[in-house]
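Usage

Read records sequentially. Each one opens with the input sequence:
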Amino acid sequence: MYKERPLLFSVKSRYNENETSLKMKSRILHIFNLFLCLSLIILGSCSPIWSADLEVRVKRVAYLPLHRPWIHVFVSVFTEEGRAVTGLDESRFLIEEDGRLFSGSKEVESFVASGRNLAYIIALDTRESLPTSLTLVSEGVKSLISEMGFRNPGAILVYTGRPEVLAGSTRNADLLMKKADGLAPGGGRPHLFDGLLLAVKELDGYAAQAESKPDELVLFLLTDGLDKGSRFSLDAGAARIIESNISLFVVGYGNRESRVLSRLARVAEKTGGSFFFAHAPDEIGSLSSAVAARLKNQYVLTYQARKIRADGQAHTIRIQVEKDGARGQDTLKFIAPDLGKERSRYLPFGLGLGVIFLAVLALLLRGRFKAR
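and closes with the structure output:
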């Protein structure tokens, strides 16, 4: 019995030692957790809190052949609710070229403020069996015309029956408004896909004959996605839209599960446009206004590219945007046009000096020979 007491004593001693050690570790851990919490509070007060996200869309890159390597990048920025974000300056944008951060200077301005213009066409169906009110569709058309104003030439196309252009292309917004007011139900079947091809033809024709070429071609489409009897396919229309560098903006209505609407949404995204769906008929007008506002308030970034050249090769550009604790980004992968080797900007000046020098030298030699 006595022999067991040291064992009991030893166990008790070890228990007391362990208890003391655990208390010490607990205090140290408590102090560490307190320090960590204070650090997080301090860091949180110094660092921006990203409370919401912005939706950013890099639409396209435009090269300036006469001022290479300067380029334009067209970017749309909007909230999660779809409203255009305005008032951003160059400090709000970060650019990455082929994975490398661009650190040079850049100029940022809105599409409207930059003095650029666009040509647009509105395509719609006026059949009697529309799943919504033609009056409300007409209000959507008038909302688009009102937002575009007199500065941007527009046209109206109806694809019910045989597709036809009712008005335009014209800068006379009043004329377009009158045509929109006069829209009446038609008895023909919807030839949506044929209408897309006619819209492309109309925009291409205007751009070819216009005195000042539009900076952007836009197709506004108000549709439920129904097509009956078109000679051409949706694939053919989509290919022509992409080939002609036309931005497609779609306001859909009717059946949200329509396969055609889903495909049109993908085409719109590929062209740098957007797709909206009106869950209620009275949303068509407000959605049309939002589409036009987003288009007018897109940003144009102009800068001297470091990595992205007009070399016919694949490139990637990423744009990051931040405003008031919200941020977003988008990446565009594209094939640059092949414009040949870049010439020095001083080459024309040097050639001019060379010609002048040779002319002066020739005159001096001629005068010397006459003196003899």
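Summary fields computed downstream for this record:
- The helical segments are 4-46, 134-148, 173-181, 192-209, 234-243, 259-270, 284-296, 347-371.
- The CA atoms of residues 207 and 213 lie 6 Å apart.
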